[in-house]
């Protein structure tokens, strides 16, 4: 079966396009590399197009120095830079597992943590009001035992993570 599509020239990605949440990190990494290479080229090959002798072959440790000095506005508008350890500032979305329909659960964004500042919208949090939520990945096994099986069991409005020692 063959499908034909006649373009009007007015198509765009803005409709029905949802970018993968991790794609921003990839794009920012590519931009960081491009900025580092550009700055290195500007210093080592002023006024030239293409690689000059000073960059052929590229010295990885020199490129790393240039890369770590880059700063730019990221794809989502955030400031991208590297600290003294070579790390970018931590930015995290705070997600909360919530009941979004009959027997359907999904993670919803309820806040963020960026550069040491925590912001949570308490009105968006879904709490289990009947009992204290115990936050533990799993109980440790006794000596000589191993973990067996992990299942997700939905019981009413709660999700239970089940594993056991054998």
TrEMBL record:
Gene3D superfamilies: 3.40.50.2300. Transmembrane segments: none annotated. Residues 16-98 form the Receptor ligand binding region domain. SUPFAM superfamilies: Periplasmic binding protein-like I. Keywords: Glycoprotein, Membrane, Receptor, Transmembrane, Transmembrane helix. It is found in: Membrane. It holds the Pfam family ANF_receptor. This is Metabotropic glutamate receptor 1. It comes from Ataeniobius toweri.
